[in-house]
Write a structure and sequence with these properties.
The protein has 569 residues and is of the alpha+beta class. Helices cover 54% and strands 11% of the residues. The chain has 22 helices and eight strands.
Length: 569
């Protein structure tokens, strides 16, 4: 029986959209089934792993929302209320869906399983739409979304490391890549794709923007002849950079302000670049094994890289040839073939681990595979076969991860148990001289370090602490919070000094009191934080307004003196 209703073009389009959404939803679930659902347990390294760190970030945001703090600067769930300023250095932007699930009554385990499904689904969708924008071929777009979303390195990030930040960056990377394509190869005035893609990456994962910046530099070098012929493409790149910078002021300014006032452990962190690079043979072995327990490019992409390497002269499309070469170079950058010791004391040390370049290699090679410059996927059956193979490899990788380390399967009840002192292995966002071990042994109450005073009625509600005092004589009192810049005692009554940092006692907040009164300490948004937040929000509104005006053709900007644009190539 023929499906005659599908002969209608509009109906067929609707059916295709519904099918695609359902496909992405199903595969997004099946990709996490083995590690998150199958055994009624979650596969994860607990303790001081990235998983515990990110779960505490979610828990802290959840508790802040309960206190009606929509944009918290300090995560007070860390270290049992001593606080951790991770929010300023590691944006909460992508954590809100998980925190809202907690508000709806989901447990931590239920929230993270649902959140992982959502991250998969969004990555599938964004990847598909971005590729379809450049090349409106349905199956090719599906191939790209499958190769990219189910890539070995991304699954390693999600299922093994559970690095929510970097996994979130994968959502916005295709959007940034679309912007890069338009600026350097396509319609240069479509630079907003790069603006929003890069901004999303910045607010998701602080390290990934550096990788994208390196990619942009390499593409710019490869496109020097075109840039000479059409230098306005560089102007588009400048606009994208400027707008992304303005949108990101709310992230960068508070971070730089804190680093100006406090010396953090992150500034003294030793570079991991040389030691983090893998041997070339190990990289190939990890990839061919298609396991997600080690950072690697994966079987499909390593085979594609070797084929492209020996057949690069047969790739006629110059864009795909450049992507192939840069993608292969990115793979080499993950290994000791790259002399990383040379860059050990340069800004590149912020990347920490060279295998992060697998992210860039993944998207470049996924684009080339989907475009099929060598004609391996000329039939629809070949495309469907490749997608099926990629899906089976993803299921196989997660299955072997679980069965290879079955002791890491944790019940949902175990997973729900929080680890407040899991602040990341590097403890980067603590002031220099802070001892986590000592803080764990420190009673969570005000302590008189010198002088005399009677203290009573101590209370803490998030960042707000208070206690009453009387008969105080030059009493120096340490409070059970780390004295990050922004904490103030200005709402206190009686003779209470400004809040300072006690560097001799784990950098705790300290006030000096005399007589009687009440100490009230809270975190107050600084002027720079307020200004940067407003500038970023205003920039977003201006961009939306101008885009809306352009869309409706309400104003012809080309007729405004000083804004005339010549036709781009």
């Amino acid at each position: 029986m023929q499906l005659t209703f599908l002969k209608n073009k509009k109906t067929k389009k609707i059916a295709t959209v519904i099918f695609t959404i359902a496909l992405f939803a199903l595969v997004s679930f099946l990709a996490i089934y083995q590690t998150e659902v199958s055994h009624g347990k979650i596969w994860a390294y607990l303790g001081s792993s990235d998983n515990r760190f990110h779960m505490m970030r979610i828990e802290g945001l959840y508790h802040s929302l309960q206190r009606h703090q929509l944009f918290p600067f300090i995560n007070m769930s860390f270290m049992n209320g001593f606080g951790y300023i991770v929010n300023i250095f590691y944006s909460d932007f992508l954590l809100y869906p998980a925190a809202f699930l907690r508000l709806l009554g989901f447990s931590s385990a239920q929230a993270v399983v649902s959140y992982f499904w959502l991250l998969n689904f969004l990555t599938f969708g964004v990847a598909f739409l971005c590729y379809y924008k450049v090349s409106p071929k349905y199956l090719n777009s599906l191939v790209f979304s499958f190769v990219y979303t189910l890539s070995t390195y991304r699954l390693h990030d999600m299922l093994f490391r559970q690095d929510i930040g970097e996994v979130g960056a994968f959502i916005f990377l295709p959007l940034a890549m679309l912007g890069i394509y338009e600026i350097f190869y396509g319609e240069r005035r479509q630079w907003l794709y790069l603006t929003f893609g890069m901004t999303g990456i910045i607010y998701s994962h602080a390290i990934s923007p550096m990788l994208v910046a390196i990619l942009i530099i390499m593409i710019a070098i490869a496109q020097i002849p075109e840039l000479k012929a059409d230098p306005k493409r560089l102007l588009s790149l400048l606009w994208a950079t400027l707008c992304s910078g303005l949108l990101s002021l709310a992230y960068f300014v508070p971070m730089m302000e804190q680093m100006h006032h406090t010396q953090f452990i992150l500034t003294q962190t030793k570079s991991l670049l040389p030691n983090g690079a893998t041997d070339f043979a190990d990289m190939v072995t990890f990839s061919l094994n298609n396991g997600i327990g080690q950072p690697s490019i994966g079987l499909v992409l390593i085979v594609a890289a070797f084929i492209l390497l020996v057949s690069i002269t047969k790739v006629k499309n110059p864009i795909l040839k450049q992507f192939s070469v840069i993608g292969i170079l990115m793979i080499l950058c993950t290994t000791k073939v790259m002399p990383w010791v040379i860059f050990n004391h340069t800004p590149l040390k912020m990347i920490q681990y060279p295998w992060r370049f697998d992210m860039i290699a993944t998207i470049l090679l996924a684009i080339v595979i989907a475009a099929d410059p060598l004609g391996f996927l000329s039939s629809k059956y070949a495309k469907i076969g490749l997608m099926s193979l990629i899906f089976l490899f993803a299921i196989s990788g997660s299955y072997r991860l679980v069965n290879g380390s079955p002791l890491q399967l944790n019940t949902y009840e175990t997973y729900n148990q929080q680890e407040p002192f899991s602040i990341g292995a590097g403890q980067e966002y603590l002031p220099v001289g802070t001892s986590v071990g000592e803080l764990q042994r420190t009673a969570h109450k005000p302590e008189i370090e010198s002088g005399k005073a009677k203290i009573s009625n101590f209370k803490q509600y998030g960042t707000r602490l208070s206690f009453n005092f009387k008969n105080a004589k030059n009493a120096k009192v340490d409070l059970p919070i780390i004295a990050y810049y922004g904490f103030q005692s200005k709402q206190s009554t009686g003779k209470v000094s400004k809040l300072t940092m006690d560097k001799d006692n784990n950098n705790l907040a300290q006030v000096t009191i005399n007589g009687s009164g009440k100490v009230t300490v809270d975190y107050f948004e600084t002027m720079l934080q307020k200004a940067s937040r407003r500038i970023s929000f205003l920039t977003l509104l201006v961009i939306i307004a101008i885009s809306f005006i352009n869309k409706l053709n309400l104003v012809d900007f080309n007729k405004i003196e000083g804004l005339r644009n010549s036709k781009s190539r």
